[in-house]
Amino acid sequence: MFEIVPVARVASPLVDRSDAPRQGDEGAPPAWIVFEQPFLEAARDLSEGDDVLVLTWLDRAERDVLTTRPRDDPTRPELGVFSTRSPDRPNPIGLHRVRILAIEGPRVQVADLEALDGTPVVDVKPVLDADRER
Amino acid sequence: MFEIVPVARVASPLVDRSDAPRQGDEGAPPAWIVFEQPFLEAARDLSEGDDVLVLTWLDRAERDVLTTRPRDDPTRPELGVFSTRSPDRPNPIGLHRVRILAIEGPRVQVADLEALDGTPVVDVKPVLDADRER
Questions:
Q1: CB distance A3–B5 less than 8 Å?
Q2: Each residue of B1-25: pLDDT tens digit?
Q3: A122 and A39 in contact (C-beta within 8 Å)?
């Protein structure tokens, strides 16, 4: 068992899970990532226009779910959660590919983030070619 | 602070950080992901040929590093770790895009995994188009 620490929080107009799109490219609004002071130095080289992977801790997800119907669609077969992007999974880590729109001090604005207001951010990584295809 | 649980472990010929390639497409060997019994059900629909994202907990990384020189290259400028893929970062989550080569009971063989033997696996997700580009 390991301890994961929030390095930032999401500030977003999305406050309820039923309002959130399933994926960021399905109409998620821009949101702010507000870094905690001890981790600001790690974020100092993020720039407007960068494409980054934001890893969140989906703190309103259920961790004891092992199978689910994708998109809660009753016509689809139940799948093991490691074959889905459901937030409900043993370690509810969200992975969001977003573009940085603006930076204001400790606040970084990003496009298309489908995470709820207050969601902890646990990591930010640059996108690599190897993430896309090979 | 949140608790993250290993759902599997990596079995790999890579045993030392100095042997590991920087990225999976730089000569990492095939490796096995061995699921823990309580999480097998979540992995039941993984199939040979699937491209998946494997999230690891890089348990030999340093968590108090906020800036680093990419690839330990002294000619490069120091960067905040959120602009690098260094394993040394506040939450040392590794993100690996790999293809499933074979499945044998609780063991899933994948190509090009640059994680050390024994590394905890914390999540597996299918690759989405949105991870690649938009």
A1: no
A2: 999 999 999 999 999 878 777 777 7
A3: no
| B74 three-state secondary structure | coil
Which value does ipTM take for this structure?
0.92
Nearest CB to A3 within list B1, B42, B85: B1
Q: Give the start-to-end residue ranges of the domains of chain A.
A: 9-128
pTM: 0.93
Q: What are phi and psi of A29, to 5 degrees?
A: -80, 165
Q: CB-side exposure of B30: number of CA atoms within 13 Å?
A: 11
Domain boundaries B8-15+24-125, CATH class: mainly beta
Instruction: Name the fold adopted by A9-128.
Output: Elongation Factor Tu (Ef-tu); domain 3 (2.40.30)
The closest alpha carbon to A110, from A47, A18, A35, A30, belongs to A30
In angstroms, the separation between the Cα of residue A3 and the nearest Cα of chain B is 5
